[in-house]
Amino acid sequence: MTLEKENQSATVETARSYYNSEDADHFYSQIWGGEDIHIGLYKAANESISAASHRTVTTMAERLPNLASNCHILDIGSGYCGAARHLAKTYGAHVAALNLSEVENERARALNAEAKLATLIEVYDGSFEDIPFQSADSSNHGFDILWSQDAILHSGNRQQVFAEAYRVLKSGGYFVFTDPMQSDNCPEGVLQPILDRIHLKSLGSPSYYRRIATELGFRVIDFDNQTNQLITHYQRVLDETETHAGALSQKVSADYIERMKSGLKHWIAGGKAGHLTWGIFLLQK
To answer: In this structure, what CATH number is given to the domain that contains residue 102?
Structure first.
C-alpha cells in the first residue's frame, strides 16, 4: 500500500532515496542475506551475519510479555520484513510493516507471499514521522506492540517518531526498538565522518531516548546495552564486503563499495573508542 509522503523530513527523504538505489538494494540483500538490515547479536566473531541478525529478532521478541496470535504489531522501518515474518510465523501475530523504501517493500511483499504469510503481513510505503494509522483508543484502534530495528536514526525529527509511536500504541502496549546511537559522554565532533557518510546531523543517545520517551508518557522498562555487538557486526560486514568484493562488483558500483568500506571502518573505530552505543530498548505506554 502506497501512502502520501508530504510530511516527511528531508532526512527521511534522503534515506528513502538511498535505500531505493540499486547499489544499496543489491548490497544489503546480498551481504545480509535478504532478510534483515540491522545489527546482529553474535555468539562468535565469525558467525554469519544472517544468523546473528535473526538472533536479534528472536531476542527482542522474547522480551515482549504479550506476544500472541491476537497481537497487532506495527514495525516502523521494516526493511525486507524479516522481523515481521518471524513474528507472523512464530506467534501468528498480525503485522503492519511501514517502510520508506518502495524497492525494499517490493522485495518484502514477494518474500512474504513466498512464505505464505501475506495474509498476516501488510506492507505500507510510508514514513514513521507521520504514521498513517488512527490514534489508539477504546474502539480497538491502535497497536499492541511497536517494533523498530536500527531505523530511527534516519529521522530528522526523532521526537516526532516517538510521539507518533505513542499515539498509535494502545495503553499498556510495548515499544521495543534498537538504534545505533552516540554514547552519552561522546565528545562533540568526533562522529562527523559517520554523520557525513549517512547524511545525518546527529545521532540519538540512550539518555536522549530515555528523556523524550519519559516526557511523552512512556515507562522505560529496560535498556540492554550491547555496544560490543555493534563493533562485531560492522567488522563482520566489512569482512564480508571484502571477501565477496568480486561478486558484489557485478551488481554494485565500485564507488559504493569503497564508500561502504570507509564508512564501516568509521563505525568500528567509533565503537572501539567508546563514542557509539547500541542495544535493545523496551518501553511501555
So the answer is: 3.40.50.150
